[in-house]
Amino acid sequence: MNPRILYIEDNEQNLYLVTFLLKTKGYEVLQAQESREGIDMATREKPDLILLDIQLPSMDGYTVARLLRGNPDLAKTPIVALTSYAMPGDREKALASGCTGYIEKPINPDTFLNQIATYMKTDMAREQAL
């Protein structure tokens, strides 16, 4: 079974590009374009990794990350903020809200998949240690 990644993103161009890149490496990609839809999908599908835009329309990604972390079934799932927020303190704010990592947009297609693989390996290493 291929690793599954949930991408919560409201911008269709970003959604398309990231999904395309991930699928080329064999990942199964689940998509949600709205905060509540993403939370519900994560709860139901229990993906291996969650990519989370911070600038979502109805509920920001910080709140989404906190809600996801409050779910015991998702407590160990890596959540990576994938965001254009790149000011000093933005990375720290994402991590403080429960994100495991932070990747700035626009993504670099040459390095993006390696970044994702790092988070996937971190998750697998954590599971093996338990």
Secondary structural class: alpha/beta
How would you spell out the order of helices and strands? EHEHEHEHEH
Uncertain spans: 124-130
Instruction: Give a short account of the largest sheet.
Output: 5 strands, parallel
- Rounded to the nearest angstrom, the radius of gyration is 13 Å
Distance between the termini: 21 Å
CATH class, named Alpha Beta
Amount of helix: 40-55%
Query: CATH fold name, please?
Result: Rossmann fold
Question: Can you walk through the features of this model?
Answer:
It is a single chain. This protein is α/β, with parallel strands linked by helices and 130 residues long. The protein has a single domain, classed as Response regulator (Rossmann fold, 3-Layer(aba) Sandwich). The chain has helices spanning 12-24, 35-45, 61-69, 90-96, 109-129; strands at 4-8, 28-32, 49-52, 79-83, 101-104. It has a 5-stranded parallel β-sheet with strand order 2-1-3-4-5, sandwiched between helices. The two termini are 21 Å apart. It contains 5 helices and 5 strands, in the order E-H-E-H-E-H-E-H-E-H. It is globular.
Keywords summarizing the entry:
alpha/beta, Rossmann fold, five-stranded parallel sheet
Describe this structure in a few short sentences.
The protein contains five helices and five strands. With 130 residues, it is an alpha/beta fold. The chain has one domain (4-129): Rossmann fold (3-Layer(aba) Sandwich), CATH 3.40.50.2300.
